[in-house]
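Annotated sample (chain length 757).
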Amino acid sequence: MLRQNALVVSATALCVLARGVSGSAQTKSIEVVVSKEADRLEQFAASELTRYLERLFAVPASIVSRPSTTADCLFLLGTPGHHPGRVLGEETFPPLSDQGFLLRKTSAGDKPGIIIVGGSPAATMWGVYELVEQYGVRYLLSGDVYPEKQREFVLPEIDKVFEPVFRARWWRTMGDFPMGTEAWGMADYRPLIDQLAKLKFNRIRVGSSPSQPFLHLEIKGVKQQYATLWYGYRYPITDDMPGRGLFGEQTEFWNPDLPMPEAGYEQLAAAGRRHCHELIAYAHSRGMEASFVAAVTDFPKEFRSIVPDARSVQQLGELTVAPGPTARPDDPELAEIAGTVIRTILDTYPEADSYGFPVGTEWPSWIDLYQFAWRELDQRYGIEDVISLEEVLRRASQRADYPGGPARSVAEVKGHITGLYFLTRVWTSPEVLSKSRKPDAPLVVYEVAEELYPILPRVLPVNTELAIVVDYNPTRVLRRRHVLASTPAKEVPTTMVLTLHDDSVGVVPVLTTGALHQLVGDMREHGVSGFCTRQWMISDHDPCVAYLSKAAWDPGATPQAIYVDQIDAVCGQTAVEPMLEAFGELEAVTTALEDHGMGFSFPVPTMMTQHWNPGPFSKELAEDRDGYRRALAAVRRVPEPRGEQGRAYVRYWIGRLEFAVAYFDAVEAVKKAATAEKAAGDAKQNGDEREYRAKLAEAVAQANAAETTAFGAIETFAGVAKNQADRGAIATMAEYVYRPLKRKAEELRAEQAQGDR
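Output written by the structure step:
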């Protein structure tokens, strides 16, 4: 928890630099003192502090191991074991956890200074970034925002210990789809990770699916020979597409660190592994741990011949296989295959700090074997002493507000019983960890049905954490927030997955802060250790990420206060009221879409064509569009900020919201075109040539409108795109929105022209 010894932040200055102001005491030099014994991260923190001081105040700042006699002000930083504060008589510090840090104003003789003490090198770095934030700098995901005017140099009166509310603060990387970070090269990741470090995130999640080029497998004489990105779909960059100017000389959208698939599997897989090693190393250089997450129950399709009763996994691309109906969780061959996958991960990425695997499976065969798996778990761990199988199934049958109802929840629990048995059996096998390069590897278990929480303290191996996924989006999670009360958080460190931007809602702007604030309160109440973000696109989420960053340390943080602070710092006070109104409207639309809009702009081939069916544009979608319009009107009321960063912030939201309104307009035109096309077909079948031609003309007009509107919407978004995820969204919409509409409009025009002959 946040502990405050004495906090007074005032406008008074112990040391003032008023450049060009007559009569002011002038600071000639600043020294940042860090021990010669300091590690690389502490040295980095010192260099960051000097950089910010010089940028903020135009004062000379140097890094020294001992203070000189000529320095006017001192910043002393390090960990308690070798902190240079001893030279100023500061020999004792308050107790700090490995994540805690102290900011304290001090002095020695006539030299004022600030002490920054961290319980670890990473905590020392966070202390530097906290101090810089108190100087007025704000951290966005895209970069820093500095005060508009250069301020007088001050040493604030402060004596405060910071300890986190949530010790685990994860950011999800990689994932899938071009609009996510699977498309990011290290040139994209480095500035993002820099910003996440400033926001005090301390872990990244590095994920790999069996079809991706980040893990090479060789099992029982079979070698992996194929890998790809985003399930094998391709995204050409053509001169006629909207947003073409974003892509330079590219002819296809792809991860810039990886060769194209045509280079061959060996080159692609080697580059993929190198990419992951570099990502993990860079996270470590910024004080973050890295967890490698993969699956052990589905495999690349090349392994079909050795996977028991292998069947294709019904997923995009169908690039993987899984055990079929006759496979059992106690099959030694299946255990050997899964164990080899785990060993390969540990041997390929021994530098990772933990390794995560989901237990969730709803294969019919494994659902049917739940009783066997339960008996095996009970014999090994005595779980019937905790809860009976009958009670587990009863609770699952009464699970409230769950998509699919009792039948699905019971099937899920049965499958998870078998999956939990299989994972723990393989993980604890003497043939797995002990024969890897990481015999003490920490485990993170994902996606365990909530009814099984009571048995996890007995079943999960030592040095295991739990990551819970209650549902896909915060709106649905709130309906089932009672689940948090049953987590084994007091016995097993538990992290909750928090969705910022769900792929099912898709490319339209969303903001989930209000819902997440409620969940964060529940997490605190029930002792949850932290959170892992879940998102694809990130540019909408500066307000939400700023909130999570603060709430992770301050239980009193609220979305309103964080929004006001960010808007004021970036755009100025006059922007606060209209931007708050816009964010409120956006949160309301997000809540509605997370209820009825799942799949609305899901980035798959049917992204737009799914809407090509006769019928009216729904009332719910019309209301969503009205919400976006109100948000857009509010942002347009913002007086033009004086600084370029503020103008860019407002431009972004205007562009994103204009895109959203136009995207909904395009969907409405698609619905009208489909309705008119259907009426034209009916009239033709009935021999009514006049009605056929009239309705076909209407279909052509609406199809043309849909094509033109979609093109304009994508161009508008492209005008405010910030990063590779945004570019991926543009490439996705060119392929799944614009090109299908263009083809359909051309087909209808051709039909019309044929009828005119």
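Annotation: The radius of gyration is 28 Å.
Annotation: The chain is about 45% helix and 15% strand.
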